[in-house]
Design a protein that fits this description.
Strand order of the largest sheet: 3-4-15-11-20-9-8-5
Distance between the termini: 61 Å
Number of strands: 20
Radius of gyration: 23 Å
Keywords: Dioxygenase, Iron, Metal-binding, Oxidoreductase
Helix content: 25-40%
GO molecular function: iron ion binding; L-ascorbic acid binding; procollagen-proline 4-dioxygenase activity
Protein name: Fe2OG dioxygenase domain-containing protein
Membrane topology: Single-pass type II membrane protein
Pfam family, one: 2OG-FeII_Oxy_3
Shape: globular
């Protein structure tokens, strides 16, 4: 009996055989024109060959390209453009006095176009048609030639590439279009513009992913209140690691929310999932978790989202709390005014077919520098 790997290889080779007749054609000058790579008879090359299968079908006229914006609704998009302007923040708000109130926490979820996917632990909200097709194309145009391998920050504060995060990314240059987009994000959230980090564009190709993680310092702090050196440096960018007015505000300089813009969604895979969410835990109680570190990408009971191109996704890394808003994460005395949400742990699942492109805007609770 053939092994599973042999069966997979046979399937891939059979798929290539179906395309063999398309491997070349004659151009106007009589010379052959390549449509797909010529056959390479080793398992190592099969995946590369098959990744070009869809392109070959399209060039051969067998298939129409997928319309990335089939679900785009210009009327929904217009509702985001009509958001009222933000009131100018005070200097005190900019330097730690801003409060994560219930009104702030609920503002985006109350937008008429919002779709709340999870009300609590974490709060996750989907915004269809947040970007126009032209805005998406603009971000592609200023980003695609400048991508580099994404890095992760280690406890000692050093950054390096890692199998935990296999995407490519870039901090694109600011333009009038990107400024309009970030302004729209902050008007939707009701949070000062200067609390946002720069937009970060990410590309995930076949097999690339980002393992489950928190965007704030929760991975470092959930077992104690003393931050690692890398977390301290991370918090300093927004007034931390001290909490409260004149410092890092209600999150002690930590990331308060994550806003994701979807530029392109893959044909298969690449969804964002929340394996520690309350609704995930409730749904998984009677299920046997599959073996492997990425069980959450295989289970349909896991809270997740697969936004279309132009859509946006918001989740809160903190929620309104009752802490004293004093102390510091540097010495373990921190008592943040907002409550960190471990349920915001999330993963970008592996891309199976196509590419995934997103833009992330991380939001702090004090001015980010």
């Amino acid at each position: 009996m053939a092994s599973k790997s042999e069966a997979v290889l046979a399937t891939r080779l059979a798929a290539y055989d179906r395309l063999a007749s398309l491997s070349s054609r004659r151009g106007a000058d009589g010379e052959p024109e390549e449509l797909i790579p010529r056959r390479k008879w080793s398992e190592r090359h099969v995946r590369t060959i098959l990744e070009d299968e869809e392109a070959a079908r399209r060039l051969a006229g067998r298939d129409k390209p997928r319309n990335e914006f089939a679900a785009y609704d210009p009327l929904l998009h217009a509702q985001y453009l009509d958001l009222p302007p933000l009131s100018p923040p005070s200097e005190a708000d900019m330097t730690g006095s801003f409060q994560l109130t219930e009104a702030v926490y609920n503002q985006a979820a109350r937008h008429p176009a919002a779709r709340v996917l999870s009300f609590e632990h974490p709060r996750v909200v989907h915004f269809p048609s947040f970007l126009s097709p032209e805005e998406v194309q603009h971000i592609f145009d200023i980003s695609r030639e400048h991508l580099v391998r994404s890095e992760v920050v280690h406890e000692e504060g050093e950054e390096s590439v890692s199998n935990i995060r296999t995407s490519f990314g870039v901090w694109p240059s600011r333009t009038a279009v990107t400024q309009n987009i970030t302004d729209r994000i902050h008007r939707l959230l009701g949070v000062p513009h200067d609390f946002g980090e720069d937009l970060y564009v990410l590309q995930y190709k076949h097999g690339q992913q980002y393992d489950a993680h928190n965007d704030n310092c929760m991975d470092d702090l959930r077992h104690g209140r003393t931050a690692t050196p890398s977390c301290v440096d991370f918090l300093k960018r927004a007034g931390g690691p001290a909490c409260g007015p004149g410092a890092g505000g209600v999150t002690c300089g930590d990331r308060m929310a994550t806003f994701i813009l979807q530029l392109k969604h893959p044909e298969k895979g690449g969804h964002t999932v929340f394996p520690a969410a309350s609704v995930t835990k409730a749904a998984m109680k009677r299920r046997k978790i599959a073996q492997g570190d990425e069980w959450y990408c295989e289970e349909d009971a896991v809270l997740g989202a697969a936004p279309a191109a132009g859509d946006a996704l918001l989740f809160w890394d903190y929620m309104p709390g009752q802490g004293s808003n004093r102390g510091s994460y540097a010495d373990g005395s921190a008592d943040p005014g907002a409550t960190p949400v471990y349920g915001a742990l999330h993963s970008g699942c592996p891309v199976i077919e196509g590419e995934k492109w997103i833009v992330t805007r991380w939001i702090r609770s004090s001015r980010f520098t």
